[in-house]
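Morning F.,

Quick status update on the modeling queue. The single chain you submitted on Monday has been processed. Sequence for confirmation:
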Amino acid sequence: MGVLGLKETTQFFRSYGIKCDEKWIEEWLKTTAAKDLTYQVCEDDLYEFNEWCRWKGTAYEEGIDDQTKIARLLEEIDELKSEITMLKKEKELLENKLGIIPF
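Structure tokens below.
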């Protein structure tokens, strides 16, 4: 495939259903020390970018401080607690529908 420019890289990801924009690709390039300022990406770099996107906005994002990591982890815990509560209610509803007596 050769070397892709910023616009082609964005189009390539979108063709695979990955939601991204040129801004995210530029940000990734700036955080990748080995890149020069030409903003061109080789095909192999696309997999690296995909991995970077996977962790962006999470507690596992590279380059964030400990305080941000903790805040993101606490937020994730709250979301998981909410999901557990919702699943317990759903389980109870299904048990009632099926006539299963809870232990």
